[in-house]
Amino acid sequence: MNSSLKQAGKTLEVCTRQLKAVTDLVKDWTNIVVAYEPVWAIGTGLAATADDAQDIHHQIREYLATVIGKEQAEATRILYGGSANAKNAGSFKDKVDVDGFLVGGASLKPEFVEIIKSRQ
Fold first, then answer.
1. The pTM is what?
2. I need a labelling partner for 44 at 20 to 30 A (CA). Which of 4, 28, 61, 68 fits?
3. Which helix (DSSP H) or strand (DSSP E) does residue 17 occupy?
4. Looking at the record's lineage, which domain of life comes first (predicted)?
């Protein structure tokens, strides 16, 4: 099912449904951080490319602009949480809507330092 979400182009639909639950409750976005992990990649062996992440992060930011305002949407940090590691972290550096990473298992490995350095 997960990989079929990407193939069906339903990624944004899933994200907006999840975000709506938050945007209906939160009025002050000063300390809110959004972390995106591709639902279609979980447990499938598939990983988003930096371009895939930029595309959905941009769409998430555009959605937020329509419901919380452009200024708050621009200030909201959106982190990529799907299999960030030392090998792919550098490819995300110049993606304007990817504000950083939510690092899982790689945070327990020496390569975590390389992930941190990739954002500098």
1. 0.85
2. 61
3. helix 11-23
4. Eukaryota
